[in-house]
Amino acid sequence: MSSHLVLLCPDCFGRRFGPRFLGRVDDSGKLVRDFYKIFNQVITEEIPDGLKLPDSFSQLVAELKNNQYDAKTFAFSLRAMMEKLEREIRESKISELMNRHFAASSIPKGIHCFSLRLTDEYSSNAYARRQLPSPELLPVLSNNSYHHFVLSTDNILAASVVVTSVVRSSLEPEKVVFHVITDKKTYAGMHSWFALNPVASIIVEVKGIHQFDWLTRENVPVLEAIESHHDFRNYYHGNHIAGVNLSNTTPRSFASKLQARSPKYISLLNHLRIYLPELFPDLDKVVFLDDDVVIQRDLSPLWEIDLQGKVNGAIETCKGEDEWVMSKYFKNYFNFSHPLIAKHLDPDECAWAYGMNIFDLRAWRKTNIRETYHFWLKENLKSNLTMWKLGTLPPALIAFKGRVHPIDPSWHMLGLGYQRKTDIENVKRAAVIHYNGQSKPWLEIGFDHLRPFWTKYVNYSNDFVRNCHILES
Q1: Domain identity same for 90 and 226
Q2: Rounded distance, CA 390 to CA 270, Å?
Q3: Based on CB atoms within 10 Å of each CB, which residue in 204, 273, 329, 389 is the most buried?
């Protein structure tokens, strides 16, 4: 009997295929060919309306055994069950990604407590308000014979880890100067922490954005965009699922969109690095660090690197052992269907990393990097934020174009906040490890096997840390 006859005979499916399902006839090759013909026909047709699906595979097999299906109905049922399962898995994964996004954007209870208590200490304890650094050390803040680090963050615990890890890794901590910049609401707590917990040998300055006279709307147009542009704010704080076709969206592409919508990208603290030459007019070179890094090796050799007239020393991110993390080109960040992007950029140009950069401020002051950055921010706003994704890096990729000197990748290891399979031995060897991505080590969603590289620099004996139960399970 041909497969065409099977389709014409509703009761024939069980009689024809049932014995073979039960193993009584060894004719598997022909059976597979018959199935292929039926499935090939069904895959191009619409699933019939009202088709009642079995609740489980066991029920499907039971109904098949009881001759309740002709071949075509069986094929349609199997296809509909698989599509339903795929849809449920996709929706479940997207729901999980949304929950992770909210977890990554939230402030853990312990860290919130930590900040509040330190802020309260600033108002009640004169020692927490003492000048940083002490008056006799103020000239060091502009002395270019020291190694100047800049850290911009509103996370006090993260700042303490970065500073402590630099000190423990430094061969000459007495030559280290840290410029910690925070926002107005965090300033008191941040100042309290470093005033009450001085780090041996190094000099720490804590400043709030409000204390920099240069940071005005005239000089920093991104301020106005952040505060007033409806599309800009809605993009980062609106409904992230609105307008997304879940049936055509892969979890990986949705995860990328969510990462691009992290609220931190509209924080001035995140844009602050583009203004370093103006904020530190007396400094020649600085190393800028993100707050989600840990330093494991002495960084003083960075000041000796010849940047060959370039402004920005950074690792390239288009080549390396980890193909998942180190495979970033301009095409990964920009929308090349936009005419301005297609006209000015090369999709195959290698990207580079923010998070640990050596900046030659003397060379920078001779360029129009800041103006270029502002121009492209405005163009992206005019284009309804369709030119790029992933926050502050894309406009920086354009602004620093042609002004980046690649440094050895061993200086900066990326991906500890999104690559679960990060090689532990490579982590141990890297000078700076970077928890870029959602899974920060201070969050519950951080990767347990990578967290100890960060927590080893948390002072668990400190009263504020202990009383706020930081990272306790």
Answers
A1: no
A2: 12
A3: 204
Helix (H, G, I), strand (E, B) or coil at 20: helix
Q: Decide if 389 contacts 395 (C-beta within 8 A).
A: no
Q: Is residue 182 part of a domain?
A: yes
Same domain, 84 and 179: no
Contact 101, 240 (CB under 8 A): yes
Q: In what order do the strands lie in the sheet with 293-295?
A: 293-295, 432-434, 412-413
Statement: residue 379 has pLDDT above 70: yes
**E strand or H helix that includes residue 113:** helix 109-124
310 and 415 assigned to the same domain:
yes
Domain count for the chain, please give it: 2
Last residue of a domain, one of 65, 88, 105: 105
The DSSP line for 51-65 is: PPPPSSHHHHHHHHH
DSSP line for 326-390? S--BGGGTB-TTSHHHHHH--TTSBPB-SSEEEEEHHHHTTS-HHHHHHHHHHHHHHTTT-SB-S
Query: For residue 307, which amino acid is it?
Result: L
Q: Would you put residue 440 in left (φ > 0), alpha (ψ -120 to 50) or beta?
A: beta
| Confidence label for 9 from pLDDT (cuts 50, 70 and 90) | very low
Q: Which residue has the tokens 């007396």?
A: 282
Domain range for residue 60?
Answer: 36-42+52-105
Least confident of 93-97, 137-141, 386-390, 412-416: 93-97
